[in-house]
Design brief:
By secondary structure, the chain is of the alpha+beta class. It has helices spanning 2-30, 43-53, 55-60, 80-97, 123-126, 146-156; strands at 39-42, 66-68, 75-78, 103-106, 111-117, 160-166, 169-175. The protein is built from six helices and seven strands; from the N terminus they run αβααββαββααββ.
C-alpha cells in the first residue's frame, strides 16, 4: 500500500517537473528575439480552437465559458503558434484561479476579453500578473511564467495585454490592432 502511494507521488512529481520544464522552455523561446512568422490569422477561429482544446479541463473544473464572438471574421497578421500559446496561457490561468466561471469575448476591433470571478485577486495583484515568476500559489503549483510569456508573445505580435480587477472579478484584455 505504501509503495503504491510512493509511486503515485513520484509520478506526480515527475509530471510537474515536465510542466515546469516546458514553462521555462516556452519562456526562453518567448524572449529569444526570434522574429515571429506572421501570416493572416482569424482571431475568432483561433479563440474557438483554444477553447475547444481546453474544453475538457474547463469542464473538469465545472466551468462552462460564456463566449461572445462577432458575426464577421476578425483577421490579423500574427504568428498562429504564438497566438495559440497566448490564448492557452490565459485559459490556463483562468482554470487555475477562477471561482467557477469564465466569460470570453472578441470584438471586431481585435480585442479579446477574458473575465472570471477571482475572490483572492486585488487590483494590486492584477497589476503584477504579467511579472516574471509572480504567482498566487506556492512554487510547487506554478512557476509564474505563463502570463509573463503571454505578455512577451503578445508584444512581439504588436499587441497589448493588461489585467484589471474590480469587485472580485479579474479581466484580462488582449488587443491586436
Amino acid at each position: 500500500e505504501q509503495s503504491k502511494i510512493d509511486r503515485i507521488s513520484q509520478l506526480t512529481r515527475i509530471a510537474r517537473q515536465r510542466e515546469l520544464t516546458e514553462e521555462f522552455f516556452q519562456y526562453a523561446v518567448s524572449i529569444s528575439g526570434k522574429a515571429p512568422e506572421m501570416d493572416e490569422v482569424r482571431l475568432d477561429r483561433a479563440l474557438e480552437e483554444s477553447l475547444a482544446a481546453w474544453y475538457a479541463v474547463l469542464s473538469a473544473r465545472g466551468i462552462a465559458p460564456e463566449v461572445s464572438l462577432p458575426d464577421a471574421p476578425v483577421v490579423r497578421r500574427l504568428d498562429a503558434a504564438a497566438l495559440s500559446r497566448v490564448l492557452g496561457n490565459i485559459l490556463s490561468n483562468a482554470v487555475k484561479y477562477s471561482a467557477g466561471d469564465l466569460a470570453v469575448s472578441l470584438d471586431s476591433a481585435g480585442t479579446l476579453t477574458f473575465s472570471n470571478s477571482a475572490p483572492r485577486m486585488t487590483q494590486v495583484l492584477a497589476q503584477q500578473l504579467f511579472d516574471r515568476y509572480f504567482t498566487l500559489e506556492t512554487g510547487r503549483h506554478a512557476a509564474g511564467l505563463g502570463l509573463s510569456i503571454a505578455r512577451q508573445l503578445t508584444e512581439q505580435l504588436g499587441g497589448t495585454i493588461s489585467a484589471q480587477c474590480q469587485d472580485g472579478r479579474l479581466t484580462v484584455t488582449v488587443h491586436f490592432p
